[in-house]
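REQUEST FORM: STRUCTURE PREDICTION
Request ID: SP-0412
Submitted by: Lab K.M.
Chain count: 1
Length (residues): 190
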Amino acid sequence: MSASTADVGSRASREIVEALRLIGPLRREIARLVPDEVGPGGLTALRVISESHAAGGAARVSDVAAAQHIGLPVASRQVRQLEDDGLVTREVSPADRRAHRLTLTDSGRGLLERVHADLIASIDAVLDDWDAEDAVQLARLMARLHEGISRLPDAVRHDHAGRAAPTENTETTQTTQATKTARTLQESAV
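STATUS: Completed
RESULT:
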């Protein structure tokens, strides 16, 4: 990379970091859409369980922990609360009686779908005055940025508290979801 290319890259990287910081209001909007009793972490757990099931697998507490960069005891308490709220069921795995498979209940699926629909409506409102091509390009570039971040070496991806990077399965699920979102936007723009 030449010096001028590196300067452009660094300048763009600084702008991206600033833009990501400015996404804070969007994160607060997302949090506002989530019922207080579930919280953003509970919503992420529901999403992980739903995506695992949609991919033909079964989620485990360790998948929930990896997706949120939290420890197993914290994820286990989170899943237990979702169970108590009637949003998730936990079954003993027939393959490994020590492990549990997590499944969304109809209530859990309904909550996840409602919050997702509200979030899409919020993003639609933000993008209302955008050209369709710009929205599609944003989705595509965000997916590309996520893909690049997921390829960073683990040493770079550990945060300052020493928490580990997400598992390969979580990265694949998130990248697949970002790619699906970009495709959906592209199809709706046509």
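NOTES: Residues 168-189 form the longest helix (22 residues).
Reviewed by: T.R.
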